[in-house]
Write a structure and sequence with these properties.
Distance between the termini: 54 Å
Shape: elongated
CATH class of the largest domain: Mainly Alpha
Structural class: mainly alpha
Largest sheet: 4 strands, mixed
Number of helices: 24
Radius of gyration: 29 Å
Strand content: under 5%
Order of helices and strands: HHHHHHHHHHHHHHHHHHHEHEEHHEHEEH
Number of domains: 3
Number of strands: 6
Length: about 600
């Protein structure tokens, strides 16, 4: 734990630094794609076509991104969070060492060239990639590497939103929700705090948004309104997940039908985004940034919170909010769904803000039911919509409270977030991150829990009659010969099928180096102080994995049942290794896949 916490500090610093570099890269690319071209057009008297960067930049950026995601590093395509999920759940935290570097370029280009994508998913993958890079270089154990990778995500998210608790909770809920223990929480929290501190040094202490007006919750009679908002956001978030992937399927079908090269697919999506940006620019003029669907700015959300976007007639306000909701959803699908590199975290927040504001307008001006601040319901809508989409309710509650610096809002937050979360699960089982992996054939929950929980140790173990055992009178020279000829470094010591202990190569070496005497296995075992680690044959493979990870062993003796007296020895019935677990999992997974295929065929 000391080592992990020290490494978590390092990862926190790198995560905060990576967040700063990433933001700087977005600004530089945005300047190159928009500011310089617009200034140049004005300087040569072509101000009438100053809209052209809005049309062309997303497509040009898409060409570069398409090259990076199709030819250089396929892992940098898309959200970022699903790739980290897969790494933590199935690869013990191992990621390609070039991922964080390519991700910075690809995502910064997507967002800086006008794409509608979030910074948070890429920053999570960048932080995780750096952590994986460090962990692999110093040869961390699988459990330590997974923890460090999740800590990198916490650092990146926390530094982005200036929300240390929210960043840590996001990492724990979304990533460690696939199988984690409370003993791993501290390094993740440490990384989140250090990431925020580093980010504050480099980016300042301002919140993610410009700032919220004073929002007060005093009236418990408003609870029914919060309940209705939670229901609406739950339904909306489930529909958003379905719409996002349905639209992605349509784009994939179109690309395949017309044989569009993978390298050009993000450019095609960027062209549609460019059309949306151009139309917005024509209708809003110099105020375009307050109405833009670009991913580089939170100004439209800030405008809702500050009230500057909610001015004019009711019809006008509702039209603007509805258009922003629809155009943001379409632009995000065109950007990320076409193969761009960017997250869906910020777009989801955007949609939640607009949905909450639309609901507030209906309540206050159409139904005339209550005089509730529009900014309050927009804020609650943001938290509820994210909770339903990302299935991280605690993150939504705490991060929103951190960003507003108002923890008295937790009551309405808990109401809308809980209801949205439940309703969304009822309508769509998987969240927007895991569903991407499931569509690729990677089922995290099934891979880590369902299959392994359904297999007993007895089914996977190598039975006693097929393993090599030794007795207490066996000489150490014989053990050394077994290690050389069989390739195994540990052997069970058995007397009349009773397990007396385990003799390993390390035990033999320590004994021989301590004093050159006539050693046998009994002499070694009598001096061993460590307790014997066994597992019952009726236990599950998931239980066995937890023991092997916690005790950092690669083999377990399998016993018939535990003994109740200290002078008794358990009966040995088998031997369980990592190879046995992997082999059994592959067989079981193949059976599941075959059954699904048969069910699919029979359904037609």
């Amino acid at each position: 734990m000391v080592k992990l916490n020290i490494l978590a500090i390092v990862v926190g610093v790198v995560g905060g630094l990576g967040s700063w570099i990433f933001r700087l890269a977005i600004i530089v690319i945005y300047t190159c794609f928009f500011i310089f071209p617009m200034d140049f057009l004005d300087s040569i008297g072509l101000s009438l076509v100053s809209w052209s960067p809005f049309l062309l930049s997303p497509a040009l950026g898409g060409v570069l991104v398409g090259y990076l995601t199709s030819r250089v590093s396929k892992e940098t395509k898309g959200h970022g969070v699903p790739e980290v999920l897969e790494s933590v759940a199935l690869k013990n935290g191992k990621m390609n060492l070039r991922v964080p570097f390519i991700k910075i370029i690809a995502s910064a280009t997507t967002i800086g060239s006008g794409g509608s994508a979030g910074r948070e998913g890429p920053i999570a993958q960048i932080g995780a990639g750096f952590a994986s890079f460090v962990g692999q270089k110093i040869n961390l154990s699988p459990k330590e590497l997974r923890t460090l990778v999740v800590s990198g995500v916490a650092a990146g998210i926390a530094s982005t939103f200036n929300a240390p608790i929210g960043g840590a909770l996001f990492a724990l809920e979304v990533l460690m929700g696939q199988g984690g223990t409370t003993s791993l929480f501290i390094p993740i929290i440490v990384a989140g705090v250090v990431g925020v501190i580093t980010g504050q040094f480099l980016l300042g202490t301002d919140p993610a948004f410009i700032g919220f007006p004073p929002l007060e919750y005093q009236d418990p009679f408003l609870i029914p309104i919060f309940v209705i908002l939670g229901l609406i956001c739950g339904i909306g978030s489930a529909l958003w997940i379905k719409f996002f992937y349905k639209a992605e399927d349509i784009m994939d079908y179109t690309n395949n039908k017309f044989n569009i090269p993978e390298i050009l697919q993000p450019a095609l999506g960027g062209l549609f985004v460019g059309l949306i940006l151009t139309i917005t620019f024509f209708f809003t003029g110099e105020q375009w940034e307050s109405f833009t669907i670009m991913g580089r700015t939170y100004l439209p959300m800030d405008a809702v919170f500050q009230g500057t976007l909610i001015q004019g007639s009711i019809i006008h306000i509702l039209s603007v909010l509805t258009l922003l909701f629809v155009l943001k959803a379409l632009a995000t699908v065109f950007t990320v769904g076409s193969g761009g590199s960017g997250g869906v975290f910020a777009p989801t927040l955007f949609l939640g803000v607009m949905l909450g504001a639309i609901f507030a307008i209906f309540i206050d001006y159409v139904i005339i039911l209550a005089d509730i601040p529009i900014a309050l319901l927009a804020l609650l809508g943001m938290a509820a919509f994210f909770a339903g989409t990302g299935r991280a309710p605690l993150t939504a509650i705490i991060m929103t409270a951190e960003m507003t610096e108002d923890y008295f809002l937790t009551i309405p937050l808990m109401v809308v977030v809980s209801i949205s979360w439940i309703v969304s699960i009822l309508l769509e089982e998987d969240n927007i991150y895991t569903l991407k992996l499931i569509r690729r054939g990677v089922v995290l929950q099934e891979s880590r829990m369902d299959i392994l929980e359904g297999i007993t140790v007895e089914e996977a173990m190598t039975p006693l009659e097929r393993i090599i055992t030794v007795d207490t009178k066996t000489r150490l020279e014989t053990i050394m010969d077994l290690v050389r000829t069989q390739g195994h470094e540990g052997y069970p010591v058995v007397e009349k099928d009773m397990l007396i202990g385990i003799i390993t190569l390390s035990d033999v070496q320590k004994a021989l180096y301590s004093s050159p005497k006539d050693w046998n296995v009994f002499d070694v075992l009598i001096n061993k102080t460590k307790p014997l680690i066994c597992i019952d044959k009726k236990s599950t493979l998931m239980h066995a994995i937890h023991i092997m990870e916690q005790k950092e062993v690669s083999r377990l003796p399998v016993i018939e049942k535990a003994v109740s007296h200290p002078n008794e020895f358990p009966k040995l019935v088998g031997w369980l290794t990592n190879h046995d677990i992997t082999r059994m999992y592959v067989f079981a997974k193949a059976d599941v896949t075959l059954q699904r295929s048969e069910d699919h065929i029979l359904s037609y």
